[in-house]
């Protein structure tokens, strides 16, 4: 099949909303959204604590956190695979090759990123916001919430960044998800599989959707940050 035929077939798959396309898109969105939510809930408090804490070694912790943001996805996938495999310490949970395993892996992948973005965001904020909240009797949690509310645009942009990385992630999804059709097959793993098989039509159709999602994420991030 030449490129012109592949493009025509891909557009036909999109127009008819092929079941394989629907399944891959659904799995991708479900896993990426849930992992982004969990990573935000874990990473934002950690980042806030590092940015506002006064403890020995805080700089070293921040460097380690920034290093973790650059971990290759296959390394994270290998770590989660070793934990969830039958011989691993969590093998009894039987989560390997499930969406839950993918969520765990992708959460671990971007939690350092969410924490690092929060550190950068809070470190650049006016310290008087937190100090004023504490002076007015707010608890530490209340003061942190006040700061994050003031920085909500940047926080939303950080969340969009995390989701954007996960929706296009391949290594973790492939290694711990197993690329099972109608179960754990995402857009990226399907693209890799179909391209290897020479089925360019489905790969192109999913590629168009992936590009569309990435575009929407960037437009959303630009909107909440007020950039043009």
Give keywords.
MetI-like fold; globular; 11 helices; mainly alpha
Describe the structure concisely for a colleague.
With 228 residues, the protein is mainly α. Helix content is 77%, strand content 0%. Helix 1 packs across helix 11.
Strand content: under 5%
Query: What ranges have pLDDT less than 50 throughout 5 or more consecutive residues?
Result: none
What is the CATH architecture annotation? Answer: Orthogonal Bundle
Q: Which class of secondary structure composition applies to the elements? A: mainly alpha
Question: In angstroms, what is the radius of gyration?
Answer: 20 Å
Overall average pLDDT: 89
- The CATH superfamily is known as MetI-like
Question: How many β-strand stretches?
Answer: 0
Using the coordinates above, name the CATH class: Mainly Alpha
Helix/strand order = HHHHHHHHHHH
Tell me the overall shape: globular
Number of helices: 11
What would you say this structure looks like, in words?
By secondary structure, the chain is an all-alpha fold. It has a single domain, classed as MetI-like (MetI-like fold, Orthogonal Bundle). It is built from 11 helices and no strands. The chain has helices at residues 3-16, 19-52, 58-68, 73-84, 99-123, 127-135, 140-150, 152-167, 171-177, 187-197, 200-225. Helix 1 crosses helix 11 and helix 5 packs antiparallel against helix 9. The longest helix is centred in the first third of the chain and has 34 residues, at 19-52. It is globular.
